[in-house]
Amino acid sequence: MSSRKASHAGSWYTDNGSRLKAQMEGWLGEVKLTLQDGSLRGLIGPHAGFSYSGPTAAHAYKHINPEKVKRIFLLGPSHHFYTDGCELTACKRYETPVGDIKIDEAMVAELMKTGKFKKMSLGVDEDEHSMEMHLPYIAHVMKGKAFTLVPILVGSLSTKSEKMYGELLAPYLQDPANFFVISSDFCHWGSRFRYNWYDKAEGAIWQSIEALDRKGMKLIENLDPKGFASYLKEYRNTICGRHPIGVFLNAIAAFKGKEKAEMKFVKYAQSNQVTNKSDSSVSYASAVCQFCAPDESKE
Hints:
three-stranded mixed β-sheet
C-alpha cells in the first residue's frame, strides 16, 4: 500500500494547494507567539472543516520549531470505525495539496512488534478525517525539512488501555526531535449530537458550554489523566479526541526524564454561540506542551 489520498480535500478544505497555503499563512500570520524557546514537544488541535477549525489550529502550529522536529506522532480518534485499541497506517506516504508526507515505516514496524497495535485498512485510513485535517498544517510548517510521520488511529479505549498506550509511547518523549500532535475537537452541543448539558448559572447556553469545556481544559493543563477521566464520566462531555488526549496525558505521567512538562491552552473558539436549545455548536481548542528543565518551569 503506497499512499493515502487526501480524501477530504475539495470538501472539508480546498484542494487547491496555492489557496490552501495562503489560508494557512494568513491564519498563522495573525498569531502571536506565547512561547519563545522552541521547547515544544506536543500540541492539541481541532480537526473540523478548515473554515471552522483552521484559525484555532494556527495558534498551536505557530509554535512548532521545524528545525528541531524530525518525527511527528499524530494521534487521532476513530469516528467511523470501531476498535478498542490503536491502529497504524499501512501506507508509505500521506498526500496533501501542499506536499506529500513520508511515513516512518521503521517506527511503525517497531510499534507493531509490541503486539499492541493493528494495521488500518486503506478504506479506514482514508475515511477518517481526524488525522487528515492536521496534515496540511504539518506539511506546511515542516516544508523543506526532513521529517517523518507516525499516524496512530486511537479507538474507544478504556482508562486502563489509555494508561497502557501512554506508557508504551512515553519513552519517545525523551527525544526532543519527536513531536506529538493530538487531534481533538471539544464539546459537540445540540440535539444532532445528542448532548444538551446546560448550567443556567453560567449564563447563556454558549457560556455554559465554554465553562464546561474549560473545566476539562484545566484538568488537561494540570496533566491529570485520572481527573480528566473522572470529568468525562461525570459530565459526558462530547470531546471526540478524549482518548488520544488520555493517551498523551498518560504518556506525560509515565515520562522518566528530568524535564518537567507544562501544558497551556492558547486558543478557544466555538462554531456558533448557542442561545436556544434548537441550535448546535462545536468547540475548538488549541494547546501547546513544552518540556523544561526543572529550574525553568513555572511553579
